[in-house]
Design brief:
17 strands, Alkaline Phosphatase, subunit A, 10-stranded mixed sheet, disordered N terminus, alpha/beta, globular, 447 residues, 2 domains
């Protein structure tokens, strides 16, 4: 063998091999949950904003799957059971938080626990109250999703042990706001809230109830304290109502900056809660606009996140049975035209709900307005509500005070390392498995 060739061969053996893609450390994982957002609602949002041939940003995700959502107790899940499946990898009874049954003695580890074991930072962001049924299973175990005061008290205890960051609404559950307009408490809640407020004041937690001080805190790099930010007394207002300036994209990008400043991988769960709440009301415009805010947030995330991030986006369940009815529906349909009667037939609404308060159309879309004129007593005028009004109710096939969840399969999107497992038909507990197997120290994770 010629000497130069032998030297090159030996040098090749001694030099380290280039790192493969799997050997490059993962920078983090982001799980996005758009509450109550059916595939039909995504389609309606696309048509409303971009037209029938348009595209949403979320359509750029390369991996897709279909996911079943039944709970431990019902064909049709609620948010608590669905989020427990995502956070813990188990089927839970409806209304139970972070464990299988209301009387369970223990529960599998949360994804936050697995991330902590790996030495990662962790955070949760929502435009709901921080005590919402989607957030709670990631942070705590509790038998009843409705006990907000008790849930908030448990959550404060987990700031540090399980989470570095918790952002959302729900200020009324960590501070006594009983003197504020529109704020009320059920019997027995206020003493718990006051105890939580005292505990929070004594703990080494950076608590914010205003947005700009939190942004300033992030810009300075934060510190070693976990952060609690509650920027609304309860859930955030709907964007379509024109009462909100703080966007879900703002919450998400600042959360990423806060977690990245810690210079280690992170797990972040982000919930878009308001599509579900709008669907319950039977307000298609509010629901659609909230999906567009979700889409804007996903677009902002892709700009903000570093390379080597696994992003999964899904919904916990469908809600309301929204349908796009036709034909005929013109291909030019877009904007508020989608919300009202069919412009060709004028006989039926393009969008309808399976259940909800829009059943009685004779009463659904009229509103009363008080008119005052000079030298005349005030008088009440009854007038029709237009489809452009966020309160406009599309027809519902079955009467209900609030639209009901439905049990159909849902969507899952994936991008980044590990997203190749997002394909085919999955169970919602498989989403937990995909994330757990991607976190280095999780049981069964690839090494």
């Amino acid at each position: 063998m010629p000497r130069p060739f032998l030297f090159c061969a030996l040098l090749t053996l001694l030099l380290p091999f280039p790192a493969t893609a799997q050997e490059v450390p993962l920078a983090g994982i982001v799980l996005v949950i758009s509450d109550g957002t059916s595939q039909e609602l995504l389609t309606a949002a696309r048509i409303y904003a971009r037209g029938v041939k348009g595209h949403l940003a979320l359509e750029s995700f390369p991996q897709t799957a279909i996911v079943r959502t039944y709970s431990g107790s019902d064909v049709v899940t609620d948010s608590a059971a669905a989020a427990t499946a995502l956070a813990r990898g188990i089927k839970a009874d409806d209304r139970v938080v972070g464990m299988a049954h209301a009387r369970s003695k223990d529960s599998p580890p949360s994804l936050l626990d697995l991330a902590r074991k790996a030495g990662w930072s962790t955070g949760i962001v929502t435009d709901d109250s921080i005590t919402g049924a989607t957030e709670a299973p990631f942070l705590i175990e509790h038998g009843n999703r409705d006990e907000n005061a008790l849930i908030a008290a448990k959550m404060v205890d987990q700031l540090g042990p399980r989470a570095d960051l918790l952002l959302g609404g729900g200020a009324k559950w960590v501070a006594d706001l009983s003197g504020k307009s529109g704020i009320s408490y059920e019997p027995g809640e206020l003493p718990v809230v006051r105890a939580t407020q005292a505990k929070l004041a004594a703990a080494k937690i950076a608590a914010f109830d205003a947005w700009q001080p939190f942004v300033d805190h992030v810009a300075k790099g934060g510190d070693d304290r976990p952060v609690l930010g509650t920027f609304s007394p309860v859930e955030f207002p709907y964007y379509a109502d024109g009462l909100r300036s703080l966007r879900l994209a703002d919450l998400a990008t600042q959360a990423v900056r806060f977690l990245r400043a810690k210079e280690r991988p992170f797990f972040l769960m982000i919930e878009a809660a308001l599509p579900d709440k709008a669907c319950h009301l039977g307000n298609a415009k509010r629901a659609i606009v909230e999906v567009l805010e979700l889409d804007a947030m996903l677009e902002a995330l892709h700009r903000e996140l570093p390379p080597r991030i696994l992003i999964l986006a899904t919904t916990d369940h469908n809600n309301g049975g929204l349908a796009i009815n036709g034909p005929p529906v013109p291909l030019t349909t877009r904007g508020d035209t989608l919300l009202g009667r069919n412009p060709i037939t004028n006989a039926a609404s393009i969008l309808t709900w399976a259940t909800g308060p829009g059943f009685d159309q004779a009463k659904a879309n009229v509103r009363e307005r008080v008119v005052t004129e000079p030298n005349q007593p005030p008088r009440t005028v009854v007038e029709p509500r237009l489809p452009s009004d966020p309160d406009y109710l599309q027809p519902a096939a079955m009467a209900a005070r609030a639209a009901m969840h439905t049990g159909g399969d849902v969507w899952l999107l994936g991008d980044g390392p590990g997203s190749d497992k997002v394909h085919g038909y999955l169970d919602n507990t498989d989403i937990y498995r995909i994330i757990a197997e991607t976190i280095p120290t999780a049981p069964g994770a690839a090494r």
